Amino acid sequence: MNVGDRHYRTIWLSDDGRSVEIIDQRWLPHDFRIEKIGSVAGIATAIRDMWVRGAPLIGVTAAYGVAMQMADDPSDAALDTVWETLHETRPTAINLRWALDEMRRFLRPLPTEQRAAAAYRRAGEIADEDVELNRAIGENGLAIIKAIAARKQKGEPVNILTHCNAGWLATVDYGTATAPIYLATEAGIPVHVYVDETRPRNQGAQLTAWEMAGHGVPHTLIVDNAGGHLMQRGEIDMVIVGTDRTTADGDVCNKIGTYLKALAAADNDVPFYVALPSPTIDWTVHDGLAEIPIEQRSADEVSLVWGKTAAGEIAQVRISPETTPAANPAFDVTPARLVTGLITERGVAKASREGLKAMFPERA
Ligand SMILES: CSC[C@@H](O)[C@@H](O)C(=O)COP(=O)(O)O
């Protein structure tokens, strides 16, 4: 998507043909910084410390990490080691394991001297495929927005609530939850997005709001606790969120707080959609609550908040007593029964084993 008048993806191969450049998301919306990363250790840090984040982008970044390892040492042992090193950076988003598995499956049969070039090629393809998947999700979600718009007065916007950042910053381009929103805006369908701030890291306030502003999408930032109130007042037409892992039975794991939005949506008959590319489906998991590992992040993310001071400095402030402990589970699981539909690259699936099987018969 565009930053100013320039088109960016979130990750691209450097001119040296070996490193990658990424948009460093730690500083947004206050500062737009590009980082160059040329080692597996650098890739692991960028994923773990959330310079890059969002399930699909984590996967693509890891794929490039495998390529860097192959350029240094293309042996089978090194392939297994880089899989382990990168896999442990973040536990919940399944796209990380999907990308690492795909790279290893593709590289293992090749002679070692061909692996580095092949790995960079395959990582680039995975990045391009992500863009195509998201574009298709956009088309399928656009049909839902159009149907809601058709029931409204002419010119009245479709009000969409979203949580966390499942925008182009969380993918290579377009985003998952935001792709239908961008396509609706391009098509001239009036939309208005309520952006959940998404404590503790504020991906909504910092990233989704920045994306919406950058693309001229009318939007309003709300605190996480406001969504239920707005739904009770009929001010939300639909919810669209992303997901870090969706089970073969349609349970949806996503940023902490998603479950509460789904409960409020169900209580108020507001359709609750989840947008996802198929690499986000974990076909090996059936019971999301019991089986998906939930990342426990640092308590500092709860007790300390980043922002920009009046003097223009990007700084962190403490919001709780020094001695108060904090817990920081980063994701929760929304049971399939609360999900209206899964917007995939192939169409909108029912959030159930049968729905996903019908959409992806070759994988189920
Ligand atoms: C297209 S992204 C879907 C999810 O990855 C997104 O909603 C999310 O929860 C991201 O969490 P994050 O912890 O910022 O990586």
Automatic annotation (TrEMBL):
Keywords: Amino-acid biosynthesis, Isomerase, Methionine biosynthesis. It is an enzyme of class 5 (isomerase). Pathway: Amino-acid biosynthesis; L-methionine biosynthesis via salvage pathway; L-methionine from S-methyl-5-thio-alpha-D-ribose 1-phosphate: step 1/6. The keyword DNA repair does not apply. One of its GO terms (biological process) is L-methionine salvage from methylthioadenosine. Its EC number is 5.3.1.23. It comes from the Bacteria. Substrate binds at R53, G54, A55, R90, Q203, N254, K255. It comes from Rhizobium loti (Mesorhizobium loti). One of its GO terms (molecular function) is S-methyl-5-thioribose-1-phosphate isomerase activity. Signal peptide: none annotated. The record marks C164 as: Transition state stabilizer. Coiled coil: none annotated. This is Methylthioribose-1-phosphate isomerase. The active site is at D244 (proton donor). It catalyses: 5-(methylsulfanyl)-alpha-D-ribose 1-phosphate = 5-(methylsulfanyl)-D-ribulose 1-phosphate; 5-deoxy-alpha-D-ribose 1-phosphate = 5-deoxy-D-ribulose 1-phosphate. Catalyzes the interconversion of methylthioribose-1-phosphate (MTR-1-P) into methylthioribulose-1-phosphate (MTRu-1-P). Also catalyzes the interconversion of 5-deoxyribose 1-phosphate and 5-deoxyribulose 1-phosphate. Part of a bifunctional DHAP-shunt salvage pathway for SAM by-products. Belongs to the EIF-2B alpha/beta/delta subunits family. MtnA subfamily.
